[in-house]
Amino acid sequence: MDLSLERVVEVAGRLNLLKPIATVITIAGTNGKGSCAAGLEAVYLRRGYKVGVFSSPILFKHNEYVRIQGTDVSDKQFCEAFEQIEKARGDITLTPFEFNALAAFYIFHQEKCDVWLLEVGLGGRFDATNVIESDLAIVTSIGIDHVEWLGDTREKIAYEKAGIFRNNKPVVCGDFDPPLTLIECAEQLDAPLYCQNKAFHYEKQDSTWTWQSATTHFKNLPIPTLALQNMSTVLMAVELLQPKLPVAVEIIEAAMANVRLIGRIHIIPGHVSRIFDVSHNPASAELLKKSLQEKNGSGKTRAVFSMLMDKDIVSTLQVMKDCIEEWHIAPLSIKRGATLPQLESSFAIAEIQNVQSYDSIVAAYEKALELSTEGDRVIVFGSFHTVADVGQAHANSFA
Asked: Which residues pair with 196 in a beta bridge?
């Protein structure tokens, strides 16, 4: 990786992509970026706007990086975009992520999208998505992750994510406790900052939830499948953009009832419930834990688990240890995956027993299902790659 924007700016300029005739929302954050993008996409699609989404990481195929009207773009569209980028770049080097970001911009431009939803890949300040001037910035949450690139404190990480802020353009922060550096960055740019539990609030009830800002109060909203913290952030962004992108209340309610995102506390009901979640750090594991506690089943809970070696495996396990009765673990099929000895050592440090080891995550999943009886649930989590490995081997896993 080359953490700079000059190369991407130059190529985007040559392709005339730097000033889109569209409303642009850039989304940064440690966790919740994909959920916020999906929530905004659901709202604006239902209203009838043409919506483009750039999102990462992917689960199964390259086309998932770019969606138009809720559908992954075709091989043909990607190849055409790559061909134009290749012609434009000359001798300028680009990373794979930068190629994909530029391809998204090119496709959105060609398709004349009304709304661009840009999910930051890493940090914000030097991310390829940041070459586009956004109309509104979102920071979903601030947690400790990617410390080798972003820093080892929430304050340092918040500073990197605040790099997507723009002069006098609104910022929505979904974190309940935003670091001071994020607030200071907004103040320096005169960017109006709207923070969760200050400028806007939500409250979960038995079967509905409420949301309130200084000017709007939604009652009896349907409970979505995605975390309310993120959907609350989405509603604040939608309210701030009403002058540009008007949306009626009934549209918002319908979108909340139908928003979906594969791999985010994705529950497949059945004889044995299966839950797929890409949580890969302690903060996202907290959300998964909360969801499991709210939907406590009648049987045993088994986990199919693996993580990348550069993640905080021990702290993630410590968050989840009281929710899981039996663990099935294996190394991932990529170089960054933690080895089996590394995983087993992490479980020992976290003082977790009842752990069974396998050669592959697919074998771990199949054994967990085999051991489960009616009322049990099997949870697959720890990484995008953990969920992807199971999904690729079992095509019906998400059906």
From this structure: 200
Query: Which two structure tokens, joined as six digits, stand for 31?
Result: 């966790």
The domain of 40 spans: 6-258
Say what the pTM is.
0.91
For residues 56-84, give the mean pLDDT.
Answer: 96
Q: How confident is the model over 325-352, as pLDDT tens digits?
A: 999 999 998 999 999 999 999 999 999 9
- Which of 192, 196, 18, 224 minimizes the C-alpha distance to 101? 18
246-252 contact pairs (CB < 8 A, 24+): 246/47, 247/43, 247/44, 247/47, 248/47, 249/218, 251/43, 251/46, 251/47, 252/43, 252/218
Amino acid at 259: V
Last residue of a domain, one of 258, 289, 305: 258
Using pLDDT thresholds of 50, 70 and 90, give the confidence band for residue 122.
Answer: confident
Say whether both 19 and 123 belong to one domain.
yes
Per the CB < 8 A criterion, the answer to whether 326 and 302 are in contact is yes
Q: Residues 276, 397: contact at Cβ < 8 Å?
A: yes
Q: Are residues 389 and 248 in the same domain?
A: no
Tens of pLDDT, residues 41-57: 999 999 999 999 999 99
The C-alpha R_g of the chain, in whole angstroms, comes to 21
27 & 141 share domain: yes
CA distance 45 to 49: 5
Q: State how many domains the chain has.
A: 2
